[in-house]
Amino acid sequence: MKNLAILIGAPVALWAAVLYPSWLLWGGDAILQSGVALALCLVPAVVTFVAIRQLTMTADTRLLATLGATGIRMGIVLGVGLLLHSQKPETFSAGFLYWLLVFYLLVLGLEVGLLVRQPLAS
């Protein structure tokens, strides 16, 4: 439960910390773009994190599940991000892709770090 709070809390804290400065620099679009990028990265990460933690598995199986989930999630997040960027370029400009990159890398690093340090279930 603590690891899930870290996985959710750290990206939300980063988003909250950069929200006002980004609004000053880029206006209201930055709030929408950063919020959508955060949600797009965080929701699938939480789902896969909870699923991997609930399964009883060996270290090798956990590594394989983590890598597989990362690859699938990368395809989904990047696919939806590019779809939004290409279908609504006036709302989701190139800045949205930068937000997506920042949040994806942060969430991926947190998730892998938390899964690696988690002890295996007996």
Q: If you had to describe this structure to a student in words, what would you say it looks like?
A:
- With 122 residues, the chain is mainly α.
- The protein has one domain (2-117).
- Helices cover 86% and strands 0% of the residues.
- The protein is globular and about 45 Å long.
Blueprint (SSEs and pairs):
Layout: H1 2-26, H2 28-54, H3 59-87, H4 94-117
Helix pairs in contact: 1-2, 1-4, 2-3, 2-4, 3-4
How would you sum up this structure in a few lines?
The protein has 122 residues and is mainly α.
Helix content: over 70%
When the domains are counted, the total is 1
**Helical/strand content category:** mainly alpha
Largest sheet: none
Q: Unreliable runs, pLDDT <50, ≥5 residues?
A: none
> How many beta strands in the DSSP annotation?
0
* Rg (CA only): 16 Å
- Identify the overall geometry: globular
- Give the helices and strands as they follow along the chain: HHHH
Note the gap between the termini: 18 Å
The number of helices is 4
Protein traits:
122 residues, mainly alpha, 0% strand, globular
